[in-house]
Amino acid sequence: MREAVPSFIFNGITNLTTNSYIMPKPNLIKAHILLAVSFTALAGTVKAQAQFTKQKFAFGTPKAPSGYIGVNPQTRFNDTTGYGFDFDSKVNAVKRTGGSAIGSGFITADKAFYFSVNVPEGNYKVTVTLGDSKGTSETTVKAESRRLMLLDAKTKEGELKKCSFIVNIRKPQISTGGKVSLKPREFGKLDWDNKLTLEFNDAKPCVDAVELEKVDDQITVYLAGNSTVVDQDDEPWASWGQMIPRFFKPGVAIADHAESGLTLGSFLGSHRLDKVLSVIKPGNYLFIEFGHNDQKEKGPHDGAYGSYTERFKLYISKIREKKAIPVIVTSTARRSFVDGKTVNTLGDYPAAARKVAQEENVALIDLNEMTTRLYDALGEENSKKAFVHYPANTFPGQDKPLADNTHFNSYGAYELARCVLEGVKSNHLGIEKYIIDDPDFDPSHPDPVEQFHMPPSPKNSTIKPDGN
Prior knowledge:
By secondary structure, the chain is α/β, with parallel strands linked by helices. Helices cover 21% and strands 26% of the residues. The radius of gyration is 23 Å and the shape is globular.
């Protein structure tokens, strides 16, 4: 688990190099010297991050080409270099020629491995070169907290393939003041640290090169929501928010600010909307999906047509002030069947969200309606395969069955992401043109679960995410 970066490094680096100094007592001099050294090192890291524009890494080549940094199995991440293999990844270098060209060698492993680079906040175009000059390869790439970037990218023998995608990096600090109030479960989360982390996985990942470039011209789609939207860190839990990056070409960045257990009110109260408002630009989007946890609020002014409706309108107003585009997403249906049909367990909340969208002239993605059709198409028993339903001992340390009818596994989250994409298309949102060529999706005819393939990430947990 990563250590959180101390808050002082975001509160003005100049404070670390000020000439004013009060001599401490003799027994504290040593401590102050050690702190000064640590502060200076951290300040240097922040300065280096602030100057970041582009870095290129050659994996496994006998000699790195000009302009590239050579990476071999001994290249371990540390804060001094700011790049390297992370989380005790065990990798192997395969040399194919003695030259320095990309493709003369690559890095591979028989298990998932991680590569991290220290970077500042922003959007990054990541280009990976995959393939083996003497064999085939098969690679899935995730970023940060299991965001899906490439799924099952295959190369033929001798083929090198370049694939590019956009990764959004964020920090808790808010430029306008304050910071996001993180939950304890978020401490150490890859989404909130100082690194851009890539996970390489699948049957035979062959990584020849990685290029990172900071880009400021992306249309950024911010996501506000709960556990059905958030980047879930651990298997088998997953959400549509962490699957949807895989469907967009460079030109669109997905910035998932959702968190488990949140409501429209607690998203506000933890300064997450403040964070989004501090970085959102004209022409960007905010997709808003809440309801599961809001329905449990029982105050005198709460309810679907009370605080829930009013807060939706507040979000819309604030986003429009920034000349950005709000989109309402109705809550995913829970898996609840009566007489073989899915029934609504969310009360008036989906209808209230639809009403706000109509009154405020906001695009609506009716995920509640689409997921209802999806579950009905799968059927009462088979729909369990889209959720976290697993017998005991499926995962390490899991001594009891998992049976959750709210939270999705990777297959279910992937199908939901396809539903959201259909909502983007039906509303003809501007980002539609950046969707990777993909057949239209009908929730009434879901992808067969037997044909779905996504290699699991190494980390798993039996702890249910906050919220229900």
